[in-house]
Structure formats: structure tokens, C-alpha cells
Amino acid sequence: MQAPQPGSYPAQPHMGAPHMPVTHQAPAYQPSPQIPVPNVAGATGPVQIVCPYCKASGMTNTVKQASSMQWIICVLCFFFCFPCTCSPFYIPSCYKITHSCQFCKSQIGTNNK
Ligand SMILES: [Zn+2]
């Protein structure tokens, strides 16, 4: 009965942040100065964040979009190296990955800034 339920949310360790009382004066969807916007640059998959908007911690939702660079490479390969035409689309880092909060859906950032 005292054992935690499987699947229950584990307590997140504070990352060196001082234990500060939470004030309820800040309006919703305003970035808090206590929580910087997570840096998701270079991340091609979901990353663990603390959302600066709703303060929830969790993995980001990612949306993968083909970048314009991929289309340029694709067209160049079509003319100069036909077997490589689709190769840019097999390289995850070529995609533009948009990270958003899974709770409040606010956009956190993209993998290429
Ligand atoms: Zn959020």
C-alpha cells in the first residue's frame, strides 16, 4: 500500500536550484526567469526539459520537417549523383526538428536554433 504505483511519476531531483517558494502572481504562459528556455539545439529526438511556460518536466514532442537544404541537395543529387537523390532524407540531422511542450504545446525551439 505504501509502495509507489508502477507508472507513477518519479520525483525529479532539483538540479542545484535553490528551494524557493512558488509565487502565483505570474500570469500563465509567461516564461519564468527561474526556468531558462531549454536548449534543444542539435537534439534530433525528444529531450527531457522543464517547460519554461507551464513548468512541467517531461519529454518534448518533436515534429520533423524536411529543411530547404535537403531539397537543394536532393535536386543537385538528381542531376549529378542520381543514386544519392534521397540520401539527404536518411540523415536525421538534416531535418528541422521542432520541439514543443507535450503539456501546454508551447514551442521550445528547433534543433538548428
Ligand atoms: Zn509547457
TrEMBL record:
Record localization: Membrane
Residues passing through the membrane, by range: 71-91
Membrane topology annotation: Peripheral membrane protein
Span of domain LITAF: 31-113
Pfam family, one: zf-LITAF-like
Keywords in alphabetical order: Membrane, Metal-binding, Transmembrane, Transmembrane helix, Zinc
GO cellular component, one term: membrane
Molecular function, one GO term: zinc ion binding
Location of region: Disordered: 1-34
Protein family per UniProt: Belongs to the CDIP1/LITAF family.
Protein name: LITAF domain-containing protein
Upper taxonomic lineage: Eukaryota, Sar, Alveolata, Ciliophora, Intramacronucleata
